[in-house]
Write the structure tokens for this entry.
Amino acid sequence: MPDSLPKIAFIGLGLMGAPMASHLLLAGHEMHLYSRSRSKAESLIAAGGIWYNTAAAAAAKADIVITMVGLPSDVEALYLSSGGLLDRAKPGAILIDMTTSSPELAIRIAEAAAVKGLSALDAPVSGGVGGAANAKLSIMVGGDGDAFARALPILEKMGTNVRHQGEPGAGQHTKMVNQTVIAGTILGVAEGLAYAKAAGLDCERVMQSIATGAAGSVQLNVMGNLMLKGDYNPGFMITHFVKDMTIALQAATANGLDLKGLKTALAQFTTLVDAGLEREGTQALAKVYD
Amino acid sequence: MPDSLPKIAFIGLGLMGAPMASHLLLAGHEMHLYSRSRSKAESLIAAGGIWYNTAAAAAAKADIVITMVGLPSDVEALYLSSGGLLDRAKPGAILIDMTTSSPELAIRIAEAAAVKGLSALDAPVSGGVGGAANAKLSIMVGGDGDAFARALPILEKMGTNVRHQGEPGAGQHTKMVNQTVIAGTILGVAEGLAYAKAAGLDCERVMQSIATGAAGSVQLNVMGNLMLKGDYNPGFMITHFVKDMTIALQAATANGLDLKGLKTALAQFTTLVDAGLEREGTQALAKVYD
């Protein structure tokens, strides 16, 4: 009975947001849509989604408001500006930010939401465009446990590994753990393969010796093989990864940590941004060593 | 017909060498043994191995000489000193160094061996004590192709992933690729989990969110979980890893590379050596961030 399903506002219909919203639409939810450019919403509108000219107008119609935008500054403006989501959402609504953003901002949003009788969850994802398309995202959620329980059936329409990680900000913190692990791993992969190339080895054969052992990782299998092919098309764009690592480093420093590996990875990727390569995939880290 | 099998000298019966030699003994090879302390050889002697008081005396009896010792300086002394393996090995013998050692030394040994009508292979392994015990090592081989072909049936009694990687030194270079990838990966794992702990997250639950996605690796699954348990018993000792990273960094630098991630990992592990923790497992990298 579609009428009994929560009404959803989905804000941000980019490469990730559009397929995520599409799963909810197909599941029968009444979908209220906003994105910076309407063109991104056309196929969802054709399938029954309802378009609004502002994010807040879409949010005003919904029981659940989901945001999937770009930068923490975008998230902050959406939620906390005057006339923004927290001002216009329906009493009792749950607002779920699935953008990878700062834990500190997630906490501020949750506090501001509570003041207004709303619930806010931070629920960043991993799994990329493929995970979004196949509804196989890992979703890491911070915030109130009751709100998580209410949101879970909806989140499970977009992901297969949906976990409540704790208080507000815990979802973002968990994503930062994920990105910190990836930062070191891809650094090792890029440097290992740079070593192999410089030593004149047959890199494909080296991969056959090392990929199944203690050096094995998703980064080695996926990004390592793209590096060897010289295929730098973005699965995950450098500019986004640099944003994430910057947030992680700030949060880690605020917690008294000195993450020298993360700093090194961020510095290496920053040289690629400086070289104008920020829209290539993270596997272009190999170019630092060419 | 055991009599038709090549006679093997096995030099170095430590945690890795003893189980490796045991597979060859069980396969019926006549085994000539030497290790710095005879006590390491007792069970192999009881099973039919023949003990010698010097490495060179053992080598003189064998068609295939295998060395599995500690440092490149040990390898150099064994092979290149006067009255050493190259002086005493039988004409036509194949000498296989399975120690993780320097590519440059492997090249020097291969050249010196050729002058004496001998063949030398560099064949370091990965897979650790477990891989040695189960004969499931990955073995990365450099050196003459014909010598590799002759050695292959013997190497396959110790490993499941035995590959000829190229000229003399290519086996050691491949192992250095492996160690360089691991260095970055374990750095990412340690820093990610340090972040999680400092942020007050439930680290086990974080692991459930991230281990199956893009952050996934053998290092995360194995060493990450040991870090969370606070179990620092060595699967792979810090002192050995520091040796390997030092060799890798020297070889990379000689090839014109600046591997900042590897340098960072080596510096972090070196702080643990300075703190007297060199005999703990590599997962004790977590302690840098405590």
Q: What stands out?
A: The first strand of chain B starts at residue 8 and ends at 11.
